[in-house]
TrEMBL record:
This is ATP-dependent 6-phosphofructokinase. Homodimer or homotetramer. The keyword Transmembrane helix does not apply. Keywords: ATP-binding, Cytoplasm, Glycolysis, Kinase, Magnesium, Metal-binding, Nucleotide-binding, Transferase. ATP binds at G10, R72, T73, G103, E104, G105, T106. Catalyzes the phosphorylation of D-fructose 6-phosphate to fructose 1,6-bisphosphate by ATP, the first committing step of glycolysis. The lineage of its organism: Bacteria, Bacillati, Actinomycetota, Actinomycetes, Micrococcales. It comes from Naasia lichenicola. PROSITE patterns: PHOSPHOFRUCTOKINASE (PS00433). It holds the Pfam family PFK. The gene is pfkA. The record marks G105 as: Important for substrate specificity. Gene3D superfamilies: 3.40.50.450, Phosphofructokinase domain.
Length: 342
């Protein structure tokens, strides 16, 4: 059996650990061979490959990024895209199946390919932790650690100048990073896509903090919407899946707070810092376990499935079920955190 590996979408701490886990389990237990497709779906569409074996994956579990490279290519577009062309490319390369490591966009494409008869197994990858079907995805823990450290640092400068700081973290549709990093860093308000708020509510929290003699620190997800807004703020165009590129809501919010409260306010977009660097120990272990389970799923021919974390166990679920509904922050979790606001 010859298995193709690809990492698609945004990069994420732990991708290399998945690759290592899959290759070591596949080679040692199932006598499988592996080929890496470079730059995600683009490599599969164009037949751009690299050799992957035990030597290739030696020591990569602790490294950030992905040795295979990534992109946001849509495998259904272009001259060589689509199931028929992909099936032909796989046949020419002697590849029997694909392990697709990616987030919502990647796994939605994987589901469509599986429906068309391509042998695909998915591995959930998203720092946003927004995929259904799994309790947590690797990369999330690392992103929260990075965001928490950054917010801790921003707090010191906020207190030195008695400024209000608005820290913007990633989170297109869900607010898990903001919720966890905000609670961990003691933020005075957490603003997430699932819970639209008015500027009056936000300024009320800010003024409460100032009246206690503190410097307000707010954490906001990039996908946060003010009450009444239909779409999240976007001014950067569309990605390959025709989704708006988000980012910059903090740069709108900070001046509004300053104008209404008179408190000097600054914004900081953490951006791709959250994706970079070495994965945390937790993410290394989770990613390795998911990679090993993906190799098992291929051996068992569980096409159209995705490996997932349920409690402490790794299980297999349908990709269709995983991408059907986002893993949003429950209202109860937000209400729990809101007790700490202001």
């Amino acid at each position: 059996m010859r298995i193709g590996l690809l990492t698609s979408g945004g990069d994420c701490p732990g991708l290399n650990a998945v690759i290592r886990g899959a290759v070591l389990k596949g080679v040692r237990t199932h006598d499988a061979e592996f080929v890496g497709f470079r730059y995600g779906w683009r490599g599969l569409v164009e037949g751009d490959t690299m050799h992957v074996d035990r030597h290739t994956v030696r020591g990569i579990g602790r490294q950030g990024g992905t040795i295979l490279g990534s992109s946001r290519t849509n495998p259904f577009e272009g001259e060589k895209g689509g199931p028929d062309n992909i099936r032909k490319t796989m046949s020419e390369l002697g590849v029997d199946s694909i392990i697709a490591i990616g987030g919502e966009g990647t796994l939605t494409a994987a589901r469509r390919l599986a429906d068309a008869g391509i042998n695909v197994v998915g591995v959930p990858k998203t720092i946003d932790n927004d995929l259904g079907g799994t309790d947590y995805s690797f990369g999330f823990d690392t992103a929260v650690e990075i965001a928490t450290e950054a917010i801790d640092r921003l707090r010191t400068t906020a207190e030195s100048h008695q400024r209000c700081i608005v820290a913007e973290v990633m989170g297109r549709h869900v607010g898990w990073i903001a919720l966890h990093s905000g609670m961990a860093s003691g933020a005075h308000a957490i603003l997430i896509p699932e819970q639209p708020k008015t500027i009056d509510e936000i300024c009320g929290w800010v003024e409460s903090v100032r009246d206690r003699g503190r410097a307000p620190v707010l954490v906001v997800s990039e996908g946060f919407k003010f009450a009444g807004m239909e779409d999240a703020h976007s001014h950067k165009g569309l990605d390959a899946f025709n989704r708006p590129r988000l980012g910059g809501i903090s740069e709108i919010l900070a001046p509004m707070i300053e104008e209404r409260t008179g408190i000097e306010s600054r914004s900081q977009v953490l951006g791709h810092m959250q994706r970079g660097g070495e994965p945390s120990a937790y993410d290394r272990v989770l990613a390795t376990r998911l990679g090993m389970a993906a190799a098992d799923s291929v051996h068992q021919q569980q096409w159209g499935s995705m490996v997932a974390l349920r409690g402490t166990e790794i299980v297999s679920v349908s990709i269709a079920d995983a991408v059907h509904e986002l893993n949003t922050v429950p209202a109860a979790r937000y209400d729990e955190a809101a007790i700490l606001f202001g």
